[in-house]
Specification:
With 237 residues, this protein is mostly helical. Helix content is 65%, strand content 0%. It is built from five helices and no strands. The longest helix is centred in the first third of the chain and has 72 residues. The C terminus is likely disordered.
Length: 237
C-alpha cells in the first residue's frame, strides 16, 4: 500500500508525500530491526543468566563435596591413623575412596559445546577454563592414587597388617608411606580448589568485570611454593 502511494506521488511530483512515505518506510524498517535487536539481547541475557546459575550451582556443589566430604573425611581419617600409630600399633594405611565415579562431571566441556565464549569477559572466561582444567588434572591424580589403593592395599587389608610395615614393625614400607603422602597432597589441592570455587562463584553472581584472576592459594601450601603464587594479570587478555 505504501509503495503504491509512493509511486503515485512520484508520478504527480508530490514531493511532500514522497518524503513522508519514505520516512514511514525507513522508520518502520528501523523499528523492526530495533525490536529484533532488543529481543536478541533479552534472549542472550536470559541464556547468560541460566548458564551462570548452572555454573554457580556446580561450583557450590564442588565446595560442599570438597569441604564437607573430602577434606573432613581425610582429616579425620589421618588423625585417627596417626593416633593409633603413635600408640605403637600397626594400623592399615589410611586411604580415601569416593563413592561413584572417581572423577568430577564434565560440566565445563558440556558448556563449551554451547558456544558460551561471548557471554563472559576475558578474565572470567580464562578463570573458568583454568579452574576446570585444574579440577580435571586433580581428578587424574586421584585416579592414580586410588588405583594404588585398590591394587596394593585392599587385597591385603583383611590379612596381616604387618604386610604394610618394615620387618621391625616400626615404619610403613616406603611405597605405602608415599601413597599416604599423595593423599595429604590431594587434600591440600582439594582445599585450594574449594577456595577457588568460592571466589569464582562470588564473581559470577556479582555481574562485575575484574582485571585480575581469582587467586588459587591455600594456607596449607608452603610460602614460596609455585602453587602459592598469584596469577599474573598482565598475561590475561
Amino acid at each position: 500500500m505504501i509503495l503504491r502511494h509512493l509511486t503515485d506521488a512520484l508520478r504527480k511530483q508530490d514531493w511532500f508525500t514522497v518524503v513522508l512515505e519514505t520516512l514511514i518506510v525507513v522508520l518502520g524498517v528501523f523499528l523492526g530491526l530495533q525490536v529484533n535487536n532488543w529481543n536478541e539481547a533479552r534472549a542472550a541475557e536470559s541464556r547468560r543468566a541460566e548458564i551462570i546459575r548452572a555454573l554457580a550451582t556446580d561450583l557450590r556443589d564442588a565446595i560442599y563435596v570438597q569441604e564437607q566430604l573430602q577434606v573432613c573425611v581425610i582429616d579425620t581419617g589421618l588423625t585417627v591413623w596417626h593416633a593409633a600409630y603413635e600408640r605403637g600399633e600397626q594400623p592399615v594405611p589410611f586411604y580415601f575412596r569416593i563413592d561413584g565415579s572417581d572423577k568430577p562431571p564434565l560440566t565445563w566441556t558440556v558448556l563449551q559445546q554451547m558456544d558460551i565464549a561471548g557471554l563472559f569477559d576475558p578474565v572470567m572466561l580464562f578463570d573458568l577454563n583454568f579452574y576446570y582444567s585444574e579440577l580435571d588434572g586433580v581428578g587424574e591424580k586421584y585416579v592414580r592414587y586410588v588405583t594404588f589403593v585398590e591394587t596394593e592395599i585392599l587385597p591385603y587389608e583383611k590379612s596381616d597388617s604387618m604386610h604394610f610395615y618394615t620387618p621391625d614393625g616400626k615404619s610403613l614400607r616406603p611405597t605405602y608411606q608415599a601413597n599416604m603422602e599423595r593423599l595429604r597432597e590431594y587434600r591440600g589441592e582439594v582445599r585450594r580448589l574449594s577456595s577457588w570455587s568460592a571466589c569464582l562463584t562470588e564473581r559470577l553472581e556479582s555481574g562485575k568485570e575484574f582485571s585480575a584472576s581469582c587467586l588459587r592459594t591455600d594456607q596449607s601450601i608452603p610460602e614460596g611454593s609455585l602453587l602459592n603464587q598469584p596469577l599474573n594479570p598482565e598475561i590475561i587478555p
